[in-house]
Amino acid sequence: MEGLASVHDLQALSALLSKPKDNDEEEEDLTLQPMARMGPGHIGPPAAPSGKNKGSTSAYVKKNSKDIWDEAEVTEGAHFDDLNDPRPQPEYEIVLKQSVGTEDLFLGLSRKDPSSMCCESMLVRVKLPDTKTSDLVLDVRETFLDLRTPKYKLGLHLPHPVHKQEGNARFITEREELEITLPMNRPMDCINLT
Protein backbone atom coordinates (compact mmCIF):
# COMPACT_ATOMS: atom_id res chain seq x y z
CA MET A 1 0.00 0.00 0.00
CA GLU A 2 3.03 2.29 -0.20
CA GLY A 3 2.13 3.38 -3.76
CA LEU A 4 -1.25 4.86 -2.69
CA ALA A 5 -1.37 8.42 -1.41
CA SER A 6 -2.90 9.28 1.94
CA VAL A 7 -5.89 11.57 2.36
CA HIS A 8 -3.60 14.32 3.63
CA ASP A 9 -1.42 14.08 0.47
CA LEU A 10 -4.47 14.23 -1.80
CA GLN A 11 -5.83 17.33 0.00
CA ALA A 12 -2.44 19.06 -0.30
CA LEU A 13 -2.34 18.27 -4.03
CA SER A 14 -5.87 19.57 -4.48
CA ALA A 15 -4.93 22.82 -2.74
CA LEU A 16 -1.94 23.25 -5.07
CA LEU A 17 -3.96 22.66 -8.23
CA SER A 18 -7.05 24.70 -7.34
CA LYS A 19 -7.38 28.36 -8.32
CA PRO A 20 -6.59 30.95 -5.67
CA LYS A 21 -9.68 32.14 -3.80
CA ASP A 22 -8.73 35.84 -4.10
CA ASN A 23 -10.92 37.70 -6.57
CA ASP A 24 -8.18 40.22 -7.34
CA GLU A 25 -7.84 39.80 -11.12
CA GLU A 26 -4.74 42.02 -11.41
CA GLU A 27 -2.77 39.68 -9.19
CA GLU A 28 -3.89 36.69 -11.28
CA ASP A 29 -2.76 38.40 -14.53
CA LEU A 30 0.70 38.97 -13.05
CA THR A 31 1.12 35.27 -12.36
CA LEU A 32 0.08 34.26 -15.89
CA GLN A 33 2.06 36.90 -17.76
CA PRO A 34 5.50 35.19 -17.63
CA MET A 35 3.99 31.88 -18.79
CA ALA A 36 2.40 33.55 -21.83
CA ARG A 37 5.82 34.69 -23.04
CA MET A 38 7.37 31.21 -22.91
CA GLY A 39 7.82 29.26 -26.13
CA PRO A 40 9.61 26.16 -27.45
CA GLY A 41 12.95 27.95 -27.22
CA HIS A 42 12.68 28.04 -23.43
CA ILE A 43 12.85 24.25 -23.11
CA GLY A 44 16.16 22.90 -21.82
CA PRO A 45 19.10 24.66 -20.24
CA PRO A 46 19.40 28.41 -20.66
CA ALA A 47 21.27 29.48 -23.79
CA ALA A 48 24.79 30.82 -23.46
CA PRO A 49 25.28 34.47 -24.36
CA SER A 50 26.38 35.06 -27.96
CA GLY A 51 30.11 34.89 -28.46
CA LYS A 52 30.60 32.26 -25.76
CA ASN A 53 29.10 29.44 -27.83
CA LYS A 54 32.46 28.16 -29.13
CA GLY A 55 33.34 26.23 -25.97
CA SER A 56 29.89 24.66 -25.67
CA THR A 57 29.53 20.89 -25.63
CA SER A 58 25.90 20.86 -26.74
CA ALA A 59 24.85 18.19 -29.23
CA TYR A 60 22.96 20.78 -31.26
CA VAL A 61 25.95 22.93 -32.17
CA LYS A 62 27.28 22.13 -35.64
CA LYS A 63 31.00 22.06 -36.34
CA ASN A 64 30.77 24.18 -39.48
CA SER A 65 27.95 26.71 -39.54
CA LYS A 66 27.72 26.59 -43.35
CA ASP A 67 26.87 22.87 -43.42
CA ILE A 68 23.18 22.11 -43.81
CA TRP A 69 23.49 18.61 -42.26
CA ASP A 70 26.10 16.39 -40.74
CA GLU A 71 27.37 13.39 -42.73
CA ALA A 72 26.22 11.03 -39.96
CA GLU A 73 22.61 12.20 -40.46
CA VAL A 74 22.43 11.00 -44.08
CA THR A 75 21.49 7.35 -44.50
CA GLU A 76 23.79 5.16 -46.53
CA GLY A 77 22.66 4.80 -50.12
CA ALA A 78 20.66 8.04 -50.20
CA HIS A 79 22.91 9.45 -52.92
CA PHE A 80 21.90 6.57 -55.24
CA ASP A 81 18.21 7.58 -55.21
CA ASP A 82 17.30 9.17 -58.51
CA LEU A 83 13.63 10.02 -58.83
CA ASN A 84 13.97 11.00 -62.49
CA ASP A 85 15.29 7.57 -63.52
CA PRO A 86 12.49 5.75 -65.42
CA ARG A 87 14.03 2.27 -65.13
CA PRO A 88 11.81 -0.15 -63.18
CA GLN A 89 12.90 -2.05 -60.08
CA PRO A 90 13.37 -5.77 -60.76
CA GLU A 91 11.79 -8.50 -58.65
CA TYR A 92 14.03 -9.61 -55.82
CA GLU A 93 14.01 -11.92 -52.83
CA ILE A 94 16.13 -11.92 -49.66
CA VAL A 95 16.84 -15.29 -48.03
CA LEU A 96 18.77 -15.67 -44.77
CA LYS A 97 21.07 -18.72 -44.75
CA GLN A 98 22.55 -20.97 -42.07
CA SER A 99 25.14 -23.67 -42.46
CA VAL A 100 23.85 -26.68 -40.53
CA GLY A 101 25.09 -30.26 -40.31
CA THR A 102 23.53 -33.50 -39.17
CA GLU A 103 24.55 -32.78 -35.56
CA ASP A 104 22.47 -29.58 -35.74
CA LEU A 105 19.54 -31.12 -37.54
CA PHE A 106 19.06 -34.27 -35.46
CA LEU A 107 20.78 -33.60 -32.13
CA GLY A 108 20.74 -29.80 -31.78
CA LEU A 109 24.31 -29.73 -30.47
CA SER A 110 25.31 -26.30 -31.79
CA ARG A 111 22.43 -24.38 -30.13
CA LYS A 112 21.26 -23.00 -33.49
CA ASP A 113 17.62 -22.15 -33.99
CA PRO A 114 15.66 -20.98 -37.06
CA SER A 115 15.85 -17.30 -36.05
CA SER A 116 17.75 -14.69 -38.02
CA MET A 117 20.24 -14.30 -35.16
CA CYS A 118 21.72 -17.70 -36.01
CA CYS A 119 22.09 -17.00 -39.76
CA GLU A 120 25.56 -16.46 -41.16
CA SER A 121 24.80 -15.03 -44.59
CA MET A 122 22.18 -13.36 -46.72
CA LEU A 123 21.24 -14.42 -50.25
CA VAL A 124 19.70 -11.79 -52.53
CA ARG A 125 18.09 -13.20 -55.69
CA VAL A 126 17.30 -10.64 -58.40
CA LYS A 127 15.36 -11.56 -61.55
CA LEU A 128 16.83 -9.75 -64.55
CA PRO A 129 15.13 -10.85 -67.79
CA ASP A 130 16.88 -10.01 -71.07
CA THR A 131 20.12 -9.02 -69.31
CA LYS A 132 23.72 -10.03 -70.04
CA THR A 133 26.45 -10.44 -67.46
CA SER A 134 28.49 -7.66 -69.05
CA ASP A 135 25.62 -5.19 -68.49
CA LEU A 136 25.60 -5.57 -64.68
CA VAL A 137 26.99 -2.87 -62.37
CA LEU A 138 26.94 -3.95 -58.71
CA ASP A 139 27.99 -1.88 -55.70
CA VAL A 140 27.65 -3.37 -52.20
CA ARG A 141 27.95 -1.24 -49.07
CA GLU A 142 27.55 -2.32 -45.45
CA THR A 143 23.80 -1.64 -45.37
CA PHE A 144 22.97 -0.89 -49.01
CA LEU A 145 23.08 -2.75 -52.33
CA ASP A 146 23.05 -0.86 -55.63
CA LEU A 147 22.45 -2.83 -58.85
CA ARG A 148 22.12 -1.17 -62.24
CA THR A 149 21.59 -2.52 -65.73
CA PRO A 150 20.46 -0.76 -68.91
CA LYS A 151 16.85 -1.91 -68.25
CA TYR A 152 16.64 -2.12 -64.42
CA LYS A 153 17.73 -0.26 -61.30
CA LEU A 154 17.69 -1.65 -57.75
CA GLY A 155 18.61 0.35 -54.64
CA LEU A 156 18.09 -2.01 -51.71
CA HIS A 157 18.53 -1.20 -48.03
CA LEU A 158 19.70 -4.47 -46.47
CA PRO A 159 17.95 -5.76 -43.32
CA HIS A 160 21.29 -6.58 -41.60
CA PRO A 161 24.79 -5.10 -42.01
CA VAL A 162 27.07 -7.24 -44.19
CA HIS A 163 30.80 -7.67 -44.86
CA LYS A 164 30.88 -5.76 -48.12
CA GLN A 165 34.15 -7.17 -49.45
CA GLU A 166 33.64 -10.84 -48.60
CA GLY A 167 30.50 -11.50 -50.65
CA ASN A 168 30.18 -13.12 -54.04
CA ALA A 169 27.75 -12.93 -56.94
CA ARG A 170 26.87 -15.24 -59.81
CA PHE A 171 24.55 -14.80 -62.76
CA ILE A 172 22.50 -17.86 -63.74
CA THR A 173 21.72 -17.46 -67.43
CA GLU A 174 19.11 -20.27 -67.57
CA ARG A 175 16.91 -18.52 -65.00
CA GLU A 176 18.09 -14.98 -65.87
CA GLU A 177 18.73 -14.42 -62.19
CA LEU A 178 21.56 -12.83 -60.20
CA GLU A 179 22.41 -14.45 -56.85
CA ILE A 180 24.38 -12.31 -54.42
CA THR A 181 25.65 -14.03 -51.25
CA LEU A 182 26.73 -11.65 -48.49
CA PRO A 183 28.11 -12.74 -45.07
CA MET A 184 26.39 -10.83 -42.28
CA ASN A 185 28.34 -8.51 -40.00
CA ARG A 186 27.02 -8.44 -36.43
CA PRO A 187 29.00 -7.36 -33.37
CA MET A 188 27.91 -10.39 -31.30
CA ASP A 189 28.72 -13.08 -33.92
CA CYS A 190 31.54 -14.50 -31.82
CA ILE A 191 29.01 -15.22 -29.06
CA ASN A 192 25.94 -16.20 -31.10
CA LEU A 193 27.62 -18.51 -33.60
CA THR A 194 29.88 -20.54 -31.30
From TrEMBL:
Entry GO MF terms: dynein intermediate chain binding; protein-folding chaperone binding
Region (Disordered): 15-61
Record InterPro entries: DNAAF6 (IPR026697), PIH1D1/2/3_CS-like (IPR041442)
Family matches, as Pfam families: PIH1_CS
An annotated GO cellular component: cytoplasm
The PIH1D1/2/3 CS-like domain, residue ranges: 89-184
Name of the gene: dnaaf6
Superkingdom of this protein's organism: Eukaryota
Family recorded in the similarity comment: Belongs to the PIH1 family.
GO biological process: axonemal dynein complex assembly; flagellated sperm motility
TM region(s), chain numbering: none
The name this protein goes by in its record: PIH1 domain containing 3
